[in-house]
Design goal:
Structural class: alpha+beta
Radius of gyration: 21 Å
Order of helices and strands: HHHHHHEEEEEEEHEEHHHH
Strand content: 5-15%
Shape: globular
Number of helices: 11
Bound molecules: flavin-adenine dinucleotide
Number of strands: 9
Largest sheet: 4 strands, antiparallel
């Protein structure tokens, strides 16, 4: 957006943004096509990101993190989208590290966060199951206390970073009789863990380089000390507290994607000749791009307002839900219009707009589907 600077951007964040953009452009973008074909990034992508301080950017330095705040996570997700890179840093940094920071004991923080910051450990969060997605309180995975251990049984699916993950925040019922109040978050270290198995990396429509996998737990034993929070049964409330931040990661990515799609399309229509003139000279092209730019600008200004509130600790769940559903819906519409202006080339995967079209679609589904977001907003009207 010409001459516009997000109100939450600082000089320090601008410098961080430049170095993050350079890193994604030089270190990750050249591998993206190969990673898409193999269905996951190389494992050493995580250590490379750790070595330059991108992992756990918003975790205090005393735990090995970058000492930043959510503005740093916002920058990372924006720049990753601009570089058209799929890398599960949103889950690792923006979600799992914050569950540990918010609910972990001092010992848990010191055990896991430095290894997540270096890339030695890759983190995932396992909520969804084959039979349960939106209705989280119905999860069937159980973590039953047995002496000093929990014994975990269940299956999870659609888990981002599932192929690489060494540390998984598992949403499980510690008391199946108590519904939402029987849910707990249990951290599982997967290395050489008996009973833990990864299933397929799921073949997706888009976001192909991000490993999304099935996970199976058959009598998996983990110490009860791996519970997040002071007592069993707090998991659902912990999830609800963290969700506004998670939804903002999706909204930030969606608005960044709209701007990138418009830039790419603007370049394309200025060089493509049809009927003896530039495609950009047609009024339809100009009006379509003008509409897209208007939508993207409104998206950014609303997301920025949410960011300011989030950084002040004041973002409520319904407003975050508005940002998530609206930006992801509009991202799909804007990218679709931009693809249309590419003609047949828009349908060819070597053109970035085709990959952006496929990548955009999941925004309306994950992080709480857009229908669930509208439910959250509608409840404020009851
Ligand atoms: C690429 C990808 C990555 C993902 N990463 C993760 C991850 O890292 N961790 C994780 O735990 N999960 C992850 N998910 C899962 C994701 O969060 C779920 O797919 C999502 O929550 C929807 O659940 P579901 O697929 O079971 O759909 P369902 O809950 O079965 O919903 C099906 C349809 O019904 C609608 N619906 C459901 N309830 C209602 C209602 N009350 N009112 C109106 N409509 C309703 C939904 O909106 C949807 O349109 C990922 C999914 C994908 C595709």
């Amino acid at each position: 957006m010409d001459g516009y600077t997000s109100p939450w951007m600082t000089e320090e964040l601008t410098l961080f943004s430049d170095s993050v953009a350079r890193f994604f452009e030089t270190e990750f973008a050249p591998h993206q096509e190969r990673w898409e074909k193999q269905g996951h990034v190389d494992r050493d992508a995580w250590s490379k990101a750790g070595a330059v301080g991108l992992l756990c950017a918003s975790v205090p330095e005393e735990y090995g993190g970058g000492g930043g705040h959510f503005g740093h996570e916002a920058v990372l997700n924006i720049e990753m989208n601009r570089a058209l890179v799929n890398f599960g840093i949103g889950v690792h940094n923006g979600i799992v590290s914050h569950y540990i920071l918010s609910y972990g004991t001092e010992e848990q923080k010191r055990r896991w966060l430095p290894r997540m910051a270096s890339g030695e450990m890759v983190a995932a969060i396992a909520m969804s199951e084959p039979g349960v997605g939106s209705d989280l309180k119905s999860v069937r995975t159980k973590a039953v206390a047995d002496g000093d251990d929990f014994v975990i049984n269940g299956a999870k699916t659609f888990i981002t970073n599932g192929y690489h993950a060494d540390l998984i925040c598992v949403v499980a019922k510690t008391d199946p009789e108590r519904g939402a109040k029987g849910i707990s978050l249990v951290m599982v270290e997967t290395t050489d863990l008996p009973g833990f198995r990864r299933g397929r990396i799921l073949e997706k429509l888009g976001q192909k380089a991000q490993d999304t996998a099935e996970l199976f737990f058959d009598d998996v034993r983990v110490p009860r000390a791996n519970l997040l929070g002071p007592k069993e049964g707090d998991g659902f409330a912990q999830l609800m507290q963290q969700l506004p931040q998670e939804r903002m990661i999706i909204a930030l990515s969606a608005q960044a994607s709209m701007h990138r799609a418009i830039e790419l399309t603007s370049d394309y229509v200025h060089s493509r000749k049809v009927f003896g003139q530039n495609l950009s000279d047609f009024q339809n092209t100009r009006f379509k791009l003008a509409e897209c730019k208007t939508v993207a600008t409104i998206a950014t200004t609303f997301v920025d307002q949410c960011m300011v509130r989030l950084l002040a600790g004041e973002l409520d769940s319904a407003t975050a839900a508005m940002a998530k559903w609206w930006t992801t819906q509009k991202n799909c519409e804007v990218v679709d219009e931009c693809l249309q202006l590419h003609g047949g080339y828009g349908y060819i995967m070597e053109y970035p707009i085709a990959r952006m079209y496929a990548n955009a679609r999941v925004g309306k589904i994950y992080g709480g589907s857009n229908e669930i977001m509208k439910e959250l907003v509608a409840r404020t009207l009851d």
